[in-house]
Amino acid sequence: MTSPSDLPSKDDLVKKTQVALSKLNLTVDQTEESTEHSNSLLLPQYKDITKFLDEATDEFEIGQLVHLESFGLYDAMSSIEIMDPKMDSGMILDSDLNKPPFNLRARLKPKEVLGIIDHLFNCEMTWHSGHSLSQTIFTCMYFHHVSELNQELFINDPNDDSTDSDSPIEFVILVLKSYVFGTIKCCHLVWDEMTKGNVYEEEDFSTNKYGISMYENFPDSQCIKLIEDAETWMEQHGCKWIREKGQHDCENVIRAILSRLHLRKSFLLVLMHMSQSRCQQYLQAQRHLNTSMQLLNGIKEGANVSLSLGVDVSGAFDPLINRKLVSQTPPRPIRLLTMQESINEMMNMLKSINATCEIINYKSATSLMNFLVYHASQQPSPCAFSRSILQSTICTENRILGKMSMFQLIKDSVTELTNPPYIYFASKIDIATSPKDDLIDENKSEISKLVHNFVDSTVKPLTDLYRILCHNRSRQRRNMCKVLTDWDLLQEEAEHIDTKLQSLTNEEPLITEEGPSYSFHLSSWVYHRKLVLLEDILFLGFELDLYGTHEYMMIYWYIDYLLGVHYQHLERTHMHVTENKKSKKQQENLRLAPPPTSTVSLLVSQRLMIIAKQDICRGIHRTISALRKTGHAIFPRLEFDDESTRFWHRFRMYRTLGSPTILSYKDFKDMTQFDNITAMDLFNVSLQNFQAARSSIEKLLAMKPSELRMDFCHADFTKELQAMLRVCIANIVSLHKIIEECKENEIVTSHKQQKQKQRQKNKKSLTSSSVTPSSSSIQTQKLTSLRKDNKVANFEFKYHPWYPVITLK
Amino acid sequence: MTDTPKIKQLRSYLNLRTRITASDNRVFNGIFMCIDKYKNIILSQTEEFRGAEKRFVGLVMIPGKHIIKAEVEDLELSDEYT
Amino acid sequence: MDVVKNKQNFSTSTSSIIKQLTNDNTDITYVPYSSELQLPGIMSLIENDLSEPYSIYTYRYFINNWPNLCFMAMDQGTCIGVIICKLDRHRDALRGYIAMLAVKKEYRKRKIGTTLVKIVINAMKLQNADEIVLETEYTNLGALSLYHNLGFIRDKRLYRYYLNGVDAFRLKLFCKGEIPIVEESQRVTGEKANG
């Protein structure tokens, strides 16, 4: 049994609840009324203008308004219309009049307690999914009266005519009370996290408490104790009583109640550990996360019996509380999650938090970034709470994972990709202990200053990037567009710094066909990150369903170009990393890092991934080109649409960037016209693209997580590769089928010889992108003939949200 | 267009504390901001009373058809107390 | 803001657009908004259609400020379709915004909505709009295809945009072609070492 000393003083809590309740106006407050009367002499006197209003407004012209000068229609728009059920939260509806009364003193049966527990859980998870507290948790009457659930409540009840066969009050004052308190404490810890401003208020999550207390002063540890007392009572008395009642499903009821108490306790412990500063207790949190997931799985597996055991208690939840609390905005339509949905919501959240706990075992900057990228792309997308926790974990007060400095992270990130000379990021102590070198000594402080300037400028763009990856998918794309210019400016600045560092370190350029080439360690890293952004902005457009099918060719063509630039850039970086052959002496002095095998394998894998993506995109836009020739992909002219205008606007955010060079609509037309190439040839080239992508992906699948720097997300990475593989295979199969169908077409065969002759020539022009005009009469002829089958191109993103499978249907 | 005397008088009530009783007997007490031909009245900083139950509702529009009583602060009378 | 009744200044070019667009639809006529007497008809039409609640003052905000961007489709004396818009500055652009569009159920599938949108597109173009935008629920396939067929693109996705928690698309139509950017020629377009 609970001893009174374990709990905060009853008076204390009652007082607090009363404050909350008076705000809620759950009961008529007599004192307030009397004050009003006594003050009435000081209040303004009113005169009745009801009749006058009729007369005055009768004299209004049609459409006339009388209003304060300072008050315009724009202000008027935001007024709440009284007596409109869609806007007026204070209206009494029929359902209000039939509202069942709530009886706090009801001796609830175990199944009724279970019913309240499950409903409250649904409320909690619905809150997590983005709805307001006032429409979820706060609708629970026991939430507002939880501190009153004590023995006295029942002992002093004059109306209590209970008999021995009634349920023991402990089901209410221990089991229900501890569960409700546990839920409140969980919500409060979540609330603390969500008010850090990591996610979008109202869009992702709603933190408005409407002045209702979450029992902030009731310590978490006491709440744990309370739940433990309830568990003990259940095991010693409660279970026995339920069994004695002898109902057929008594064991299920016992299991259901106990598992919910256990889960509540372990979830609360998870949140308590997660909330400690600097990620210090993530290890402990993970222990309870595992327990929580096991318990939740247990509830899920026994779902068919346990979820239907609970019994509704009339009046225990009052949705009208929302209308009392939220007076200045129209009520939102709401549907509470079902038990099954709530369980899934919680499971996803627990998994996501667990993954976040893993990353504090920092492996590399790249693997941290990769984790974020894959976490951000998960479907269903991670909930707002786990996204906020992740953000807090990654970066709080400029501290990464609770322990690292931004300097260290940027150092790692740059080093992992471009492997700059050791001296760049060396600390003062490192330099002091390094071998003497006059030149370097002279310049080391200057080098260090320049690199620190670079780091200072990088902190914001990089943290922004981390934060963006923790937002909802729609925001990710929008915010990526916003930070593009920051990265562009950073690149420009980094180029200046690189140039200065070149001379300070006496860098000897590599001699290439195009002349001397310098390494540009810092700006190369920036450019790489910027190109990823440019590509992802376009790719995310597919995932968010922003493009019409008539736009696919243009978009994939542009991504193809960006990936090409990116590939060349990494090729160049690769060259500098591997062929950095300086004179022996100089190498020693600069203390180049040992043979950077990790950098090389990272560059190899990055390039493979880029070339795989490029081949897929190329295969897609070429297939569409071919299908336009065959007449299978004809996009009707849209009245006010102008392709060149659309082209200009779709890529407008790239227009102001220093690099890469923006391509024009003319470039697009010139390079995708393929006038002198047959559809059949285009199909065959596309086929080769998909086959090439397939072999690149297979190579990637054979690489180790550490080589790929996918330490925290290798499973997701593999899953993506497999999805890409399926896209390739499905398109290869589809293309074979399309080619077969084309071959069967007589006109195509009649032109076969002519085309065969052209084929070699055409292939060349495809790769060089040079285009020569050819007769359009053949085109039209072919177009009409091939369309005999009445099929049209069909795009299905069934394996990967970024790449479709193209078929004829 | 020039105001009729009544409209002019109505205009003088703008910015005054106004008390509107709605068809469901709720009373809204706020500052008179705007009115149209259909007596759709906008009050700002409004408090809503249902019996003794009171809550702040801010900027509201009470449709003319739902107004059963309208009262405006009587400046002459009120002045005696200020 | 007081009275909207002076319709004489309604440009002749807009009325010619209406004529042009509505030649073949003999039973339905398209008229510009002219008096607040039309407001109750417009409101009852929209209230049946849209999920978001609006008060009479919301309609007035749009209609009183941009009366020449509100058009109605009439069958005899009854308003069976309406479009309500605004046009103002948004950053560097003059942006048209389609706030509400509704067509009575029995009159759908007759391109009445499309005609109303075409009328405002032309009216906004006459007023030199750079772009026209609107939001619609991402699940509203009817609206999406109507605007798509006119050349609107889906510019953005807005997460949980509506009161009911549903995502929206921001649709956009570009009224003007390429806007030359001065800085472009001034910037170093080469990629320096990173080409």
UniProtKB/TrEMBL annotation, chain A:
<feature type="region of interest" description="Disordered">
    <location>
        <begin position="750"/>
        <end position="783"/>
    </location>
</feature>
<feature type="compositionally biased region" description="Basic residues">
    <location>
        <begin position="752"/>
        <end position="764"/>
    </location>
</feature>
<keyword id="KW-0963">Cytoplasm</keyword>
<comment type="similarity">
    <text>Belongs to the MAK10 family.</text>
</comment>
<feature type="compositionally biased region" description="Low complexity">
    <location>
        <begin position="765"/>
        <end position="777"/>
    </location>
</feature>
<dbReference type="InterPro" id="IPR007244">
    <property type="entry name" value="Naa35_N"/>
</dbReference>
<dbReference type="GO" id="GO:0031417">
    <property type="term" value="C:NatC complex"/>
</dbReference>
<dbReference type="InterPro" id="IPR057982">
    <property type="entry name" value="TPR_NAA35"/>
</dbReference>
<feature type="domain" description="NAA35-like TPR repeats">
    <location>
        <begin position="356"/>
        <end position="806"/>
    </location>
</feature>
<protein>
    <recommendedName>
        <fullName>Mak10 subunit, NatC N(Alpha)-terminal acetyltransferase</fullName>
    </recommendedName>
</protein>
<feature type="domain" description="NAA35-like N-terminal">
    <location>
        <begin position="63"/>
        <end position="224"/>
    </location>
</feature>
<dbReference type="Pfam" id="PF25789">
    <property type="entry name" value="TPR_NAA35"/>
</dbReference>
<dbReference type="Pfam" id="PF04112">
    <property type="entry name" value="Mak10"/>
</dbReference>
<dbReference type="InterPro" id="IPR057983">
    <property type="entry name" value="NAA35-like_N"/>
</dbReference>
UniProtKB/TrEMBL annotation, chain B:
<protein>
    <submittedName>
        <fullName>N-alpha-acetyltransferase 38, NatC auxiliary subunit</fullName>
    </submittedName>
</protein>
<dbReference type="GO" id="GO:0016740">
    <property type="term" value="F:transferase activity"/>
</dbReference>
<dbReference type="InterPro" id="IPR001163">
    <property type="entry name" value="Sm_dom_euk/arc"/>
</dbReference>
<dbReference type="InterPro" id="IPR050914">
    <property type="entry name" value="snRNP_SmB/NAA38-like"/>
</dbReference>
<dbReference type="InterPro" id="IPR010920">
    <property type="entry name" value="LSM_dom_sf"/>
</dbReference>
<dbReference type="InterPro" id="IPR034110">
    <property type="entry name" value="LSMD1_Sm"/>
</dbReference>
<feature type="domain" description="Sm">
    <location>
        <begin position="8"/>
        <end position="72"/>
    </location>
</feature>
<dbReference type="Pfam" id="PF01423">
    <property type="entry name" value="LSM"/>
</dbReference>
<keyword id="KW-0808">Transferase</keyword>
<dbReference type="GO" id="GO:0031417">
    <property type="term" value="C:NatC complex"/>
</dbReference>
Automatic annotation (TrEMBL), chain C:
<dbReference type="InterPro" id="IPR000182">
    <property type="entry name" value="GNAT_dom"/>
</dbReference>
<protein>
    <recommendedName>
        <fullName>N-terminal methionine N(alpha)-acetyltransferase NatC</fullName>
        <ecNumber>2.3.1.256</ecNumber>
    </recommendedName>
</protein>
<keyword id="KW-0539">Nucleus</keyword>
<dbReference type="Pfam" id="PF00583">
    <property type="entry name" value="Acetyltransf_1"/>
</dbReference>
<dbReference type="GO" id="GO:0031417">
    <property type="term" value="C:NatC complex"/>
</dbReference>
<dbReference type="InterPro" id="IPR016181">
    <property type="entry name" value="Acyl_CoA_acyltransferase"/>
</dbReference>
<keyword id="KW-0808">Transferase</keyword>
<comment type="similarity">
    <text>Belongs to the acetyltransferase family. MAK3 subfamily.</text>
</comment>
<keyword id="KW-0012">Acyltransferase</keyword>
<dbReference type="GO" id="GO:0005634">
    <property type="term" value="C:nucleus"/>
</dbReference>
<feature type="domain" description="N-acetyltransferase">
    <location>
        <begin position="28"/>
        <end position="176"/>
    </location>
</feature>
<dbReference type="InterPro" id="IPR044542">
    <property type="entry name" value="NAA30-like"/>
</dbReference>
<keyword id="KW-0963">Cytoplasm</keyword>
<dbReference type="GO" id="GO:0120518">
    <property type="term" value="F:protein N-terminal-methionine acetyltransferase activity"/>
</dbReference>
